[in-house]
Design brief:
Layout (H helix, E strand, L loop, with lengths): L1 H20 L23 E4 L17 E6 L3 E5 L7 E7 L16 E4 L4 E10 L9 E17 L2 E6 L12 E5 L1
Antiparallel strand pairs: 1-3, 2-8, 3-7, 4-7, 4-9, 5-8, 6-7
Length: 179
């Protein structure tokens, strides 16, 4: 009988030794970190201007200078860049052509009266009048920008016609740009 106990004890010891020599479970450290990123792409900075012809008025020929004026129509800037950079709108015009040229660059010849803009989002938009209409100059400037914003205004354009201007239709182009 002793032999059986010895064999049984040997088998039990072998099982214990085999279990101890088997794979040992891995132990993790207390914590770990994984970097994570998100990328948000910027949108665009756009300007929308009236596309139909603005009529500044109808006057009769005169031996004296006359001023005509009217609102141009709604001008809008949409800043979808989603950042903090400000923007500036610059406007200008070219001389009126018709039966004769009417200058927009001489002192007192023309003006762009820029009202305060209606602003959405976070931006401080400051209006500036432009006189004369050439050379180009700023008419709205946005500072303190944070994220998406927009501004809308309707400027008044004035042109002084010289004394004895010839009868006829005159035309010019007003250009706006934003950067």
């Amino acid at each position: 009988m002793r032999t059986r106990r010895y064999i049984a004890s040997s088998v039990a010891a072998g099982v214990v030794v085999a279990l101890m020599a088997g794979p040992v479970p891995a132990f993790a450290s207390g914590s770990g970190s994984t970097p994570v990123t998100i990328q948000i792409t910027a949108g665009t900075l756009d300007i929308t201007v009236p596309t139909s012809t603005a009529n500044l008025g109808l006057v009769s020929v005169s031996g004296s200078p006359q001023t005509v004026s009217s609102q141009l129509g709604t001008v809008s800037v949409t800043d979808g860049r989603g950042g903090t950079a400000g923007w500036t709108v610059v406007a200008n015009a070219v001389d009126f052509t018709g039966p004769q040229n009417i200058s927009v660059s001489a002192a007192g010849s023309s003006s762009y009266t820029s009202p305060s803009a209606a602003v959405t989002g976070t931006a401080i938009v400051t209006n500036t009048n432009l006189a004369p209409l050439y050379p180009p100059g700023p008419v709205q400037v946005a500072t303190g920008v944070s994220g998406i914003n927009s501004a809308t205004w309707n400027p008044t354009i004035s042109v002084t016609l010289p004394a004895n201007a010839l009868a006829g239709t005159y035309s010019s182009t007003i250009t706006h740009s934003v950067s």
